[in-house]
Amino acid sequence: MLARLLVLITILATPAFAADELIRRAEPRSCFLFSWGKGPNWKTGVPIEFHRHYLNLKQPYVDDRYFDPTPDALTWIDRTVAPTISQIARVDGRIVLRVDYPIDGKFGRDIECVMLAMETAPKSGWFAPFFVAQPELFSGLFVSSDSIRIGYVASLEFSGTGAMRTHHLFDLTGSHPVAVGAASAGRVRSIDFDTDEEYKEALKMFDLEAKLLNGEQVGADQPAAALESKPQGKEKPKPESEARTQ
Where are the beta strands (DSSP E) in 103-176? Predict the structure, then answer.
């Protein structure tokens, strides 16, 4: 009986908001958008902020009809499935959210959409997205280095194509997360190259990948296309963990 009363009190105490009260226009902030089939694979300025309660009503969607950078590629649709919302860090008092929307396992995928967003001010409840993807496979990890106090690597991976993957490094310590590096890797076989020099040059991608996964700023903020090959086996990404509270 006591548990039921507590649930009822919680429901009555939760404010009711209309959807349009939970999203607002703001100065454009950098956000990387990706759709694994086609379309977006770039960053653009997204001029919106959303309240955490908005996730009870709507979910992000990356429109794959756009091929050039535009904020119009990020839209919001009625929520069809309850997401997994994880508070993965608190950086300088502001919460970093990871929001996963599950899928039925079609094509081996287990995530329909993943969004990373940071609170715009401590304890405000308002967030700005900095990464929204409809991936085939996704993983993430926190990194720290001499140049980045707290960073996050968002990794997009592809099965059945030489285990190609692209990593995006974000610096979380500014007013809004900034993409500061990217690296792509895939299968590399000596038989795919005409000379030993070309083969050795292709292997350098793994050095860049290792540096980025250690929090070093390498590559451009827009990824180059991964090569279509990679050596057998690869080290699994480190698991996500709490970033240090600053």
Answer: 111-119, 126-134, 137-143, 151-157, 165-171
Rounded distance, CA 95 to CA 234, Å?
A: 32
| Residue 114 contacts residue 138 (beta carbons within 8 Å) | yes
Task: Give every CB contact of residue 152 below 8 A, 6+ residues apart in sequence.
Answer: 89, 96, 116, 140, 141, 142, 143, 169, 170, 172, 177, 243
Of residues 37 and 153, more confidence is placed in 153
Which tokens belong to 21?
């009260």
Residue 76 CB: number of other CB atoms within 10 A?
16
Q: Which of 144, 187, 184 is nearest to 168 (CA)?
A: 184
What global pTM score does this model have?
0.79
Q: Measure the CA–CA gap between 112 and 108, rounded to whole angstroms.
A: 11
Alpha carbon separation from 12 to 19, 110, 226 (Å, rounded): 19, 35, 52
Structure tokens at 208: 């860049």
Model confidence over 11-64: pLDDT tens digits?
Answer: 444 456 677 789 999 999 999 999 987 889 999 999 999 999 999 999 999 999
